[in-house]
Structures are given as C-alpha cells and as structure tokens.
C-alpha cells in the first residue's frame, strides 16, 4: 500500500505537483455537475431562426477539471437531419494529445 500526502511548500524544489494531483484534491470535495451559482447555468434559448440555439454562460466541474462558457455561444444545427435530435453535452478527455473539457 502506498502513502500519499500533499501540498506542502517546496524547499529547494524538492516537491513538484501535477495538474492530476490538484484535480484529485478538488474532486474530493467538488462534485461533478453544473455550478448553479455561476452565469446562466448553460440555459438553452432558441433564436427563432432555423435550428439555432444559444447556450448561456455557465461553469461545470468534471472530475476536478472545470469547463466555463463566459459569453453566450451560438450553435447552428441547420446541417443536422430533421429526424435527428441533437444532443448538447460537455465531456472530459485526458488523452495526452487532447486534454480539455469542451462542449459537443
């Protein structure tokens, strides 16, 4: 069994912490989901023109990582077949070449 501790001041650069260390700490007390005290909580609003929606501002936490939309974001589904129902979601990807939280 390994022992872990964390977040002590470095003396002579004897300690380094990674983003993974910090997100592990954050995820121990911040639950996954939309932060209801920030912005518009990603509220969806129809523009009334075609198949466009505006995603409102908001902040979400995913496994200690955060995703923020700080200004309304227009999404156009004009190219999506009429019988297809588009899904809007955020995701968390930690592959080395593709690290981000994003909307899709």
Summary of the model, kept short:
Helices cover 8% and strands 34% of the residues.
Describe this structure in words.
There is one protein chain. The chain has about 100 residues and is mainly beta. The chain has one helix at about 20-25, and strands at about 35, 45, 50-55, 60, 65-70, 75, 90-95, 100-104. The protein has a 3-stranded antiparallel β-sheet, with no helix packed on it. A 3-stranded antiparallel β-sheet has the order 2-3-6, with no helix packed on it.
Q: How many separate helices?
A: 1
Pattern of helices and strands: HEEEEEEEE
Helix content: under 10%
Beta content comes to 25-35%
C-alpha-based Rg, rounded? 19 Å
Notable characteristics:
104 residues, mainly beta, three-stranded antiparallel β-sheet, 1 helix, elongated
Write the layout of secondary structure elements.
Elements: H1 19-26, E1 33-34, E2 44-46, E3 52-55, E4 58-62, E5 65-69, E6 73-76, E7 90-95, E8 98-103
Antiparallel strand pairs: 1-4, 2-3, 3-6, 4-5, 7-8
């Amino acid at each position: 069994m390994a022992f872990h501790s964390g977040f002590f001041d470095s003396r002579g650069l004897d300690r380094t912490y990674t983003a993974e260390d910090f997100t592990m700490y954050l995820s121990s007390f911040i639950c996954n989901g939309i932060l209801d005290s920030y912005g518009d909580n990603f509220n969806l609003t129809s523009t009334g023109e075609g198949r466009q929606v505006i995603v409102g501002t908001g902040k979400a936490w995913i496994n200690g990582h955060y995703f923020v939309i700080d200004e309304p974001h227009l999404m156009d589904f004009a190219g999506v077949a009429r019988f297809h129902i588009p899904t809007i979601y955020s995701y968390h990807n930690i592959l080395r070449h593709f690290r981000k939280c994003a909307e899709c």
